[in-house]
Amino acid sequence: MCMAGRGGAKDCPAAMRVLVPQCEAMNDARACVRVGAELLKPDGCLGPQRNPAEARRILARACDELGHPNACQMMAVMYKKGDGVDVDAERSEAYRKKTIELLQTTGEAMGTVKMNAPSSSSL
């Protein structure tokens, strides 16, 4: 609610103070995805202070350890584009495949739309 300004003023730092511990200490994969996404946005919660290296660490954990397909998809894109990491087609493809696998096994939604699997062109 703080992140979006629902029920009060928008307060991104307060939202991050809640989300980071949820991700790190409570193993909340959705919180990790939100934190990772904010760290990648040039106009996000943290302002112009992007931190792709930290986003990679958090998103890799959310994907590899916590099994969240959105995190895997974001990792695939990071490796495809070289955002905070070296371009690595092999890793990008591995994360793309893991995204599809997790979507099929968990039934998790990508973004706000429920999907069976992303097409290879969307990653």
What is the element string, with H for helices and E for strands? HHHHHEE
CATH superfamily: Tetratricopeptide repeat domain
Helix share of residues? 55-70%
Number of strands: 2
Q: What general form does the structure show?
A: globular
CATH topology: Serine Threonine Protein Phosphatase 5, Tetratricopeptide repeat
Major sheet size, sense and barrel closure: 2 strands, antiparallel
What is the number of helices?
A: 5
Q: Low-confidence segments, ≥5 residues, pLDDT <50?
A: 112-123
Give the helices and strands, then pairings:
Elements: H1 12-24, H2 29-40, H3 52-64, H4 69-81, H5 89-106, E1 109-110, E2 113-114
Antiparallel strand pairs: 1-2
Can you put this structure into words, describing what you see?
The protein is mainly alpha-helical. The protein has one domain: Tetratricopeptide repeat domain (Serine Threonine Protein Phosphatase 5, Tetratricopeptide repeat), CATH 1.25.40.10. 56% of the residues lie in helices and 3% in strands. The chain contains five helices and two strands, in the order αααααββ. It has helices at 12-24, 29-40, 52-64, 69-81, 89-106, and strands at 109-110, 113-114. Strands 1-2 form a two-stranded antiparallel sheet. Strand 1 and strand 2 (113-114) form a beta hairpin. Helix 1 crosses helix 2 and helix 2 (29-40) packs antiparallel against helix 3 (52-64). The radius of gyration is 14 Å and the shape is globular. The protein starts with 11 loop residues before the first helix and ends in a 9-residue tail after the last strand. The relative contact order is 0.11. Mean pLDDT is 84; it is low at 112-123.
